[in-house]
Amino acid sequence: MTTAKYFGWSTLALILGGFFGFLVFAMFMPGGSTAAGNTGGAVLAEQYVREGRITRLENGVAEFVTTFGEHFMLNPASEGFRVPEVGSLQRVALIPFRRSADNVYLARIRTMRKINQYSSESAGGS
To answer: What is the pTM of this model?
Structure first.
């Protein structure tokens, strides 16, 4: 009977040890990579050239809405560019690096140029 008790306790200890080991493992493992799912997150950093309008300016951060309806938050002053005027048309080469849950992208600016009208490649204005 002592061997039955010994194996009973060791089995229970093995099961509980495995369970706690799994909990510790699961606690420190990173979550699944959803690539900016419904909650937003990091996006693949590629350069895009977009034309659009500066719709809002707050503390030097500009909201740039493209002719495709994309929303980008840009910080021109911190990247060495002049702060654009609200309502001005811009042609911007940018690299988005993060997306919020409501599809607003944070992006770095490569080039930023004020334009008078949209180019023929553009979707025609917003």
So the answer is: 0.64
